Amino acid sequence: MANENWYSIHHHEKVISPSLLVYPDRVQHNIDLMISMIGDLNRLRPHVKTYKNANIIKMQMAKGIQKFKCATIAEAELLGDCNAVDVLLAMQPVGANAQRFIELIKKYPNTKFSTLLDNSKTLNIISELASTDNTKISLWVDINNGMNRTGIIPDQDALELYTQLHENPNLIAEGLHVYDGHLRNSDPTIREQECNTAFEAVIELKKSIENHKIPSPKIVAGGSPTFPFHCKRTDVDASPGTTLLWDSGYGNLFPEMDFLPAAVLFTRIISKPTTGILCFDLGHKSVAPEMPFPRIEFLDLKHSKQISQSEEHLVVEYDDLTIPEVGDAHYAIPRHICPTVAKYDTLTIVKDNTVIDYWPVTARTQKSTI
After folding, report:
1. Checking DSSP bridges between strand 137-143 and strand 112-117, what pairing results, if any?
2. Which of 88, 176, 221, 254 is the most exposed place for a label (fewest CB within 10 A)?
């Protein structure tokens, strides 16, 4: 892995561009690092949203990881196909997805499925569906501890919601789900302080639940940036996701974390329209475009500046006019890997600088069979 050209591939003329290359040796390093950081497989619940692939799920299961988190029914179904033991759908099911969740449970009886809610209306809808199907549904109360994206503030209302959940005969109260993706300070000391401060209200809510003679709730907390800190809480499950493939966004923000980039974009120069301008076949359809430039970090093209992007094209200013030629192959790490993976049907698997396989991105679709 110390090889400075670890990312390059032999016989690249046979590889289509753009492609997303994945390096299983590096994925394995990241899995082993996750496990060593937490020290307890029972408290590790990785998120599969980044890679959406059975091979990487099975690599983790081979190391003893049994609990997973996902964001879509299709990802949950993929985990069911992999015979995962315990799956948390970390997206409150609304509309047709509530019934789809029931169908998911029926299709995979050997997998324990649970999901989230943050309000009484959803609780009542899921309770009615469970009653109709003569089953019990496992639910977590989703907590908003500062991100203001989903969840309920951990106050009296959250206590009342959790009490409703506990007392409902059709439902099983699993615990509290806490995602703090807004905590991204690049200074790990400050980030840990912010993480602990935001988590204080969650601890108080847990105590309030216990004081009402309700069984102590389990807690699933954090993502990749706060994973090192939630690892230290012996009564909390941590749920990193980007750690499996990593990217330049997190790599540059959190250099103290030793995860390796394990996914690389393979691209080619398709035009040199004028002096100092290169155009690559790496448009919006091939790399996550929601970030400001730079959206990728070239591994083999220094002194470049990304200036525009459209559906199929990425335009770059480059100050060396003698080296790049049309058709030249280049390599880049995406700034945001999760939505980048979803743009590819397959991952091109590389070992020892050689393409050895192609892994399907099975759960990139909105629906598999359910």
Report:
1. parallel
2. 254
